[in-house]
Write a structure and sequence with these properties.
14 strands; binds manganese (II) ion; 8-stranded parallel barrel; 4-stranded antiparallel beta sheet; binds phosphoenolpyruvate
Length: 340
């Protein structure tokens, strides 16, 4: 349930309402705007039916949300959420590029990539240190050494960093280095992990599970939001369908759909979404045209020697060409792109 109060409501009138809601066993989430104050009431609101909420001073409207996710919904907050990290704003007018290798392999690889993507306008450096590989015999990542290298390469180039956290017991370690936690597709419904990330203050890039409905993705975001962390970025990265030419089917209709259903920023990963480097640029451009707030793209100095996902990884020259081709599209959809 959402209770909309007049923006001029004073603190004691707001407290009166909140105290009543708490007394009835409800937690609340408050957003203060200039014109209105929105009080989100979480959980089953059946017992509020008999409470005369309109009688409380300042209350203008009481809306029952029928969607199972509340804090993530556009009904709860109808202005776009922007996630700010290290001077980067995700979800604003500017289109944000996140780029880097699938996995951090060594110092030379990550520093070379960081310098290159920075020069092309990327704002966030990606790279896995803990990798969720399908086979236990595949390279699993460098762990803390990988985190260190990624953080150093980010620092040298003034880039924020994003890296995956796979389990609750990795949160503290990953938090020491990263600016943004990445929750991978395989962990989208690891609810224990989501709840713990909800207790941190760092942004979370939440990737869609391979068989997840949009509603399930938004409910996973709700797990993080409901613990107090409002910095969630949604990521469409392709879903599994009967088509097997592509690694996944990149569901670009998810972008406008998520934008309509939710206020959270939405980015697209055309690398995992297609699994083929030749399809990455066309789908990256299509994603921006569809309204994505940014892209996360795998880039490596030499994809053929990459320890993971080389077939879907762009080289510096193909990434350079992509950025060039993206610019007119960014402009055409009324967005901005900030070159260094
Ligand atoms: C990744 O981005 O490195 C990754 C493993 O992606 P996903 O979780 O979407 O498969
Ligand atoms: Mn990868």
């Amino acid at each position: 349930m959402i209770i909309v109060m007049n923006g001029k409501t004073n603190d004691s009138d707001l407290d009166n309402l909140v105290n009543k809601l708490n007394e009835m066993g409800h937690e609340v989430n408050i957003i203060r705007g200039e014109k209105r104050i929105v009080v989100g009431v979480i959980g089953d609101v059946e017992n509020l039916v008999s409470v005369p909420l309109y009688a409380f001073t300042g209350v203008e409207e009481v809306i029952r949300i029928m969607k199972p996710y509340k804090l993530a919904s556009r009904e709860f907050k109808n202005t776009n959420t922007t996630v700010k990290v290290k001077g980067v704003t995700i979800g604003g007018k500017e289109v944000i590029l996140m780029a880097g290798p699938c996995v951090v392999e060594n110092e030379q690889q990550i520093f070379k990539t960081a310098r290159q993507v920075k020069a092309l306008g990327a704002k966030v450096l990606r790279g896995g240190a803990f990798k969720p590989r399908t086979s236990p015999y595949s390279f699993q990542g460098l762990g803390e050494k990988g985190l260190k290298l990624l953080a150093e390469a980010g620092k040298e180039n003034g880039l924020a960093i994003v890296t995956e956290v796979m389990s609750v017991n990795q949160i503290d370690l990953v938090a020491e280095y990263t600016d943004i936690f990445q929750v991978g597709a395989r962990n989208m419904q690891n609810f224990v992990l989501l709840k713990e990330l909800g207790k941190t203050k760092k942004p979370v890039l939440l990737k869609r599970g391979v068989s997840a409905f949009l509603e399930e993705l938004l409910l996973s975001a709700e797990y993080i939001l409901s613990q107090g962390n409002s910095k969630v970025i949604l990521c469409e990265r392709g879903i599994r369908t009967f088509e097997n030419y592509t690694r996944n089917t990149l569901d670009l209709s998810a972008v406008p759909a998520l934008k309509q259903l939710s206020h959270l920023p939405v980015i697209v990963d055309p690398s995992h979404g297609t699994g083929r480097w030749k399809l990455v640029s066309p789908m990256a451009k299509a994603a921006i045209a569809a309204g994505a707030d940014g892209l996360i793209i795998e880039v490596h100095p030499e994809p053929k020697s990459s320890l993971s996902d080389g077939v879907q990884t762009l080289k510096f020259d193909t990434f350079t060409q992509l950025v060039k081709e993206l610019k007119p599209i960014i402009q055409a959809v009324g967005r901005e792109f900030d070159l260094p």
